[in-house]
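Internal tracking record. Fields below are filled automatically when a chain is submitted to the structure queue. Please do not edit lines marked as system-generated. If the sequence contains nonstandard residues, flag them in the REMARKS field before resubmitting.
Queue: standard
Priority: normal
Entity type: single polypeptide chain
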Amino acid sequence: MNSRSNSQRTFVKLLCALSSSTALLLNPAASSAPTTSSPTVPATPRSDGLASTASDAAITSKLKLKLAGNSALKQSDISVSTFNGVVTLYGVASNRAAKTLAEAEATRIEGVKGVDASALLIGK
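SYSTEM-GENERATED OUTPUT FOLLOWS
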């Protein structure tokens, strides 16, 4: 095999993957067909669509800025993710007050439907 043919195959595979991804983004209903899963493997959560994904990214960005700008949280190492409007806080809060403050900041962000801080540990 020559490198040109390998490059072409790689390009075609990439193009097919992008095409499939674009189709799912433009038509989220196509990915919401009923799925079957074994009892030991939970079903993978699905996004409510492109608008929800963009909103989730905005929520995450806004909250990260708020947390980074809050001097009471400087000693904490808090990460943020958002899925369908539900914020998940994880990492380590410096103390109980810092964890409570991070949760409160999250609930104040427009578009947040819920906050899960069960993976946010206390103490360093």
